[in-house]
Specification:
Number of strands: 4
Mean pLDDT: 86
Shape: elongated
CATH topology of the largest domain: Double Stranded RNA Binding Domain
Largest sheet: 4 strands, antiparallel
CATH architecture of the largest domain: 2-Layer Sandwich
Distance between the termini: 60 Å
Amino acid sequence: MPKLATPLTDIQPRTAKAKDKPYKLTDGGGLYLLVNTDGAKYWRMDYRLADTRRTLAFGKYPEVSLAEARDKRMAARKLLTQKIDPSQDKKNRERARNEANSNTFEAIAREWHTNKLESWQPRTAANVMHRLEQDVFRLIGHLPITEIKAPIILDVLRRIEKRGALDMAKRQGQVPAQYAYSAS
């Protein structure tokens, strides 16, 4: 029968000092604070899945508080009850987030810009990028390309026109070109 750990108090992680060897302050349920010899403190959780012992990292203390680490432990335990590996789930979510970030309008527009560099004069390339950064990226740069529809592009162009930058609005007609590039 495993021994029950006494839950940590808020003071214990804060006052934990480095020693000659790394050591653990256990909180129970597999959660512990690993204190390294350099004084760095990391939240970890040990668990078993399919008769294999594994460790899940939750982050560095104090960026991740004791309460947050406990919440993450609860979420991991919930996944384990469903026979889902929390480490693999974390990797899958990270991969999906990275994929979503690589398919943003800004990422695709920058790729389009890079591909057009050879056919443009340096000044033209600089002007196009400047206009994108000033007028477009701050409004729709963060959006996944699949969420950008004609009304959103029209809204961006109208905002530029309202500012009195009619030439900019005309030139931002390149936005559909970047959108078309993403579809190719």
